[in-house]
Amino acid sequence: AKRKIWDWDSGAYLGEIDEAPETYNVVGNLNEHGLAIGETTFGGNETLAGGAGLLDYGSLIWVTLQRAKTAREAVAMFGRLVAEYGYVSEGESFTIADAQEVWVLELIGKGKYEKGAVWVAVRIPDGHVSGHANQARIQRFPLDDPENCIYAPDVISFAISIGLWPAGRPKEEFSFSDTYDPITFSGARQSDARVWSFFSAVAEDRSFEKAYEAYVLGQNLSASARMPLHVKPRAKISAHELMGHMRNHYEGTALDP
């Protein structure tokens, strides 16, 4: 059997993929097993958008929710689907969560170069919070820790092949974000600043706000000035409190309107 794929945003027909033997019920961005996937678009290197393929970001989410039970299964499913069917959208940050684990997966297509996508997924440690807001956030990542980090096998070699990363530089220094979605003034001020405001409100480290203020103001955009992917909160965050943080408008910070 085949499944027809329509672009999530435009509704354009993209083609057909093989249907799975069994699929799960999905409502919104949550399936019957408690697996949830959210996203924000970061765009990234413009030459890597709009490649050949059958899956846009929304269809990738929907098909994965129909086929995976856990966050870890979903990470693997993302990788298999884009490798087999290609990816046609811009760069995306995905939050993939179940009752036991939360992963942040960042992915960008290969544009005119070849079918597929490159990606990195990092598990958020228990007791920590993370966030993304239209700017890729995974910088350096562990190359030999599959329990906590999974990535496309060509995430570095592809960057080398198209001239985005020097062939002789140590792989341990490779940064996904700085290679595929380099930080800009607007990336810091309009995007990462929203994560900064949330982290500042909840971080156990009370100095967090001031420590990264120059970065989100666009005054220091060096790689070393950027924020961590996750922080330890000073207390557990309830669902109701999280709703409040989603209404954050930089109140009480240097960006308070």
Compact description:
It is built from eight helices and eleven strands.
Q: What is the total domain count?
A: 2
SSE-based structural type: alpha+beta
Percent strand: 15-25%
Point out poorly predicted stretches: none
Discrete helix count: 8
| Large-scale geometry | globular
How many distinct beta strands? Answer: 11
Order the strands across the largest sheet as they lie in space. Answer: 5-6-7-8-10
Question: For the report, how would you describe the main beta sheet?
Answer: 5 strands, antiparallel
Mean pLDDT: 97
| SSE pattern, N- to C-terminal | EEEEEHHEEEEEHHHHHEH
Instruction: Compute the CA-based radius of gyration.
Output: 18 Å
Helix content: 25-40%
- What gap, in angstroms, lies between the N and C termini? 54 Å
Organism: Zooxanthella nutricula
Pfam families: Peptidase_C69 (PF03577)
Family: Belongs to the peptidase C69 family. Secernin subfamily.
InterPro entries: Peptidase_C69
How would you portray this structure in words?
The strands form four sheets. Strands 5-6-7-8-10 form a five-stranded antiparallel β-sheet, covered by helices on one side. Helix 1 (57-67) packs across helix 2. Helix content is 27%, strand content 20%. The protein is globular. The model has no long low-confidence stretch (mean pLDDT 97). It has two domains: 2-181, no CATH class; 183-257, no CATH class. The chain is of the alpha+beta class.
